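cache lookup: miss for this entity combination. No prior model stored, computing from scratch. Input as submitted by user K.M.:
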Amino acid sequence: MVAKVDRPHRVTIHFEKNHLLEIAKFMHDELGFDHVKGVAGIDHPTHRKIEVLYFAGSYSKPEIQDLIVILKAELPREDATIASAVSVWPSSHFHERETFEMFGVKFEGHPDLRKLLTLDNWEGPPPMLKDIKFPEMGQR
Amino acid sequence: MTTETTQMKPPAPPITITKTQEPSTLDVSVGPQHPGSGHFRMLIRVDGDYIVSVDPDIGYVHRGCEKIAEYRNYVSNIPHLERPCIIDAIHLNWAYVLPVEELQGVVVPPRGQYISTIAAEMNRIMSHLYWLAINAGVFSGHTTIFMWAFGDRDLFIELAEMLTGARLTYSFLPPGGPRRDLPFGFEDKLSKLLDYFENRLVEYDHIFFSNPLVVSRAKGIGVLTREEAMELGVAGPVLRGSGVKYDVRKVEPYGAYGDVDFEIPTFEEGDSYARFLVRFEEMKQSVKILRQCLQKIPKGPIARKAPLVAPEGEAAGRVESSRGEYTVMVMGDNSDKPYRVKIMNGSFRNLAALPFLIRNVHVADMPIIYGSLDYWPVEADR
Amino acid sequence: MSQETLMDFAGAWIGKLSEVVKTITGSGPVRYLVNWSRMYALWPVHITTACCSAEFGAMMGPRLDPERFGLQAVAGGLRQCDLLIVEGTVTKKMAKRLKIVYEQMARPRYVIAMGDCACSGGLFHDSYSIVNDVHKLFPVDVYVPGCPPRPEALLSAIVKLREKIRREEVFA
């Protein structure tokens, strides 16, 4: 696990994907980071990995209210699964659904993992992956 | 780290939709076409006059903003990244430009910060007037406030047109600072408008916020306690209506907010009426901030030239938009197009509270709760 | 009379009757009266598609007051409305529902495509999830370009639509 502070008010922590629930519980119970602002995915096709980011913040403790802690994990592109943080942070429910739909990342333990934003019968690939090129994109 | 003072209550129950259906219930689709806000569907399960549970169905305005952002350069991204919440466009623009400037190492001069703050606070008033007209007015059946609020909103829009050249979609803040200086005569017109608007706010109080019909419909409805609000991660006036004093303008000041003096209205009750009052008080505070900005604005340049490319790295910036904390993460890769733009906005986060609040309420309470959350579907869907 | 001659006789009379009706309604006071009543009571469907709805709301406001043209925002009365204003981007998920709304309206019904996104895709023309050509879903009467168009432009589109209605046939 590696933690970096290279921008003001932001802490970036790289961690192994298996430790998500322990880290989340520690941050939630001991440190007081009680909510998640968003869950993002970043696709790196050349390195064959997908990064999942959790943006955690705190409402209850005034001394750390100005921090955003960015938790990053790397997942292999072919088999992108990670445990779901909904049991610790209920605010990540809809964000994880969106990341599942846009990047194909499966969150194990999520109570209701289904499509959120795209068409009802969207059979296509997860739209945000980099090597999925829709033919009309970028045309002038 | 010490576990001190308050033990937090157990977190809110997870948001699940019960799939089994009792024989006495009926599934109704408050469909994408409804006499209210934008395209958003709620599948409600009704038992007589009570709503048992609700399943929000979003995505009817999903235009793929984040994917399109990877195909346009940093400046061309501004028009389409400010469209998600068009009535609040300056805040969206600013939230996107803050991390880009951080990556590029550009610092906006003080006069530019003040001009951005003036535009942002005017936009906050416009957005709250739109909320008042439609989400609080039309949803509860009060069409007089619709007419009044839209009439006053047009006066602010005229001033914004004088400043930026457009009615709603300003594209006013490229990386480096605002595009234009304050035009001649702008400051006088704005102070006159603020004097007029303060008198109008008293009239709004008389016909809407102290109206016994509105009070009886909204008081005690849709209560969100303090711990639940923090655990569900809601943002903006929904959070401040439940007693949590949190505003990005005070927590991580940007623009000119560090120099001006204002308060954050917070109410303890957590019901819909408290959320109404938070926005009403915020309009008054915006008037106060605008007056101070007009007095204190320094002289000097308004913008610095920013490069066209951004180096490698990630940066996250946030502003307090009218619907909550708007956070944008931009990842650059040494080219003139961003590698990834991730948007986290108040409407999408407040969605977590919707199935939690609309449970075991009357059908007639549903528009009031939905209106008090100020959910803007285009922003949540991006 | 045999059945054939009876059918011919009935067909000829129905033909003559419809010609008479068309002649009566085709010119003069009846046509004027029917078109006048249609153009002075255009009720728009309350459907706010995307960002252009903010300018639609501004047009319904007190400054431009479209109620003097008979435009009332009738909340909840979909089947009594006759004007569908497609404001803004139409996504694929929404296109199905928009078609259902269009087919629920009773004839005569008119469509205004408001905004660049409804006319031709606009700012989001290369997105994977939107429909660029709204005229493939249903026929459009007036196109209003702009991003978003000014409320005055939308009101002038409604005036143009009223001109179009004034000149049209009763049984189109």
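stored under new cache key. Residues 2-108 of chain A form a domain with the Beta Polymerase; domain 2 fold (CATH 3.30.460.80).
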